[in-house]
Amino acid sequence: MNVYEIDIMMKKQQSMRTDTSLVALLQHRAERMPDACAYVFLVDGEHQEQALTYRELDARARLIAGWLQEHRQTGERALLLYPSGLDYIAAFFGCLYAGTVAVPVYPPSRHHRQRLAAIIQDAAPKVILTTAEWHEKLHNDWQENNGGNACIWLSTDRIEHSEAPDWKPWVPTSDSLAFLQYTSGSTGNPKGVMVSHGNLMANQRAIRAAFQHTDDTVVAGWLPFYHDMGLIGNILQPLYLGTAAILMSPMAFLEKPIRWLNTIS
Fold first, then answer.
1. What's the angle, vertex CA 101, arms to CA 225 and CA 215, rounded to 5?
2. pLDDT band for position 143 (50/70/90)?
3. Which of 80, 115, 120, 248 lies at a 20 to 30 A Cα distance from 180?
4. Is pLDDT larger for residue 204 or for residue 227?
């Protein structure tokens, strides 16, 4: 076997190891390209940037996962109650790292409140992940409207290394449930679709092939993170490619649509 054949074989073996789940893939990115930018979030839709490297995202996911494992949330459902932002992304991967089933939703508003209530009733989450700001805004209202439902709350932006339990590596299979994707509820109550790790990886391969993405592809998007295209297209596909995503909130786009075109440029 010559050097070229050995190189091809090693690349195939590496692909097999990292193509099993997003957990394995993020760990691979954090190990091989730790300081590469994974996500940029434009807080104001234009200039105010927040960013995460692959190393930082992996570290944040481990912190959140360690807390979830310590509180016996492996296999349970976790409601992701965040506005668009990097905290949402870290929490989603924290759930994947812990084997906790993520339930992506959007913080309640007059428009979203009925949909959120239907999702909560159907998913029966055991833990609510959010930021300290939204915890303060929502907790009392939650207690009042959910009959004192004994959900555990975690402000993921306040977890520190010194207080977080060590993460115990969890290896999902292709059949392991990754998250629940809820329909819009525009024609009836939202319905949850069970999405496995195998589903996600197959979908990522299909997206890359259909869009002819490469290692040089950069994603720029504004869709909400609980939305199928916002999560699977704008967040997970860049990780799958090993490239960067530049994201903004839906409201930033709606207020001034030219922001999206400027970001693409």
1. 50
2. low
3. 248
4. 204
Question: Across the strands, what pairs with 104?
Answer: 80
Question: Can you read off the two tokens belonging to residue 172?
Answer: 């999902």
pLDDT in tens, 69-79: 998 999 999 99
Q: What whole-number distance in Å separates Cα of residue 192 and Cα of residue 75? A: 16
Residue 188: Cβ-neighbour burial (10 angstroms; 0-12, 13-18, 19+): exposed
- For 66-97, b/e burial (b = at least 16 CB within 10 A) is bbbbebebeebbbbbbbbbbbbbbbbbbbbbb
Q: What pTM was estimated for this model as a whole?
A: 0.88
Q: pLDDT of 191-217, one tens digit each?
A: 889 999 999 999 999 999 999 999 899
Give DSSP secondary structure letters for 6-36.
HHHHHHHHHHHHHTS-HHHHHHHHHHHSTTS
Q: Strand, coil or helix: what is 60?
A: helix
Amino acid at 44: D
The rounded percent of the chain whose pLDDT value lies above 90 is 58
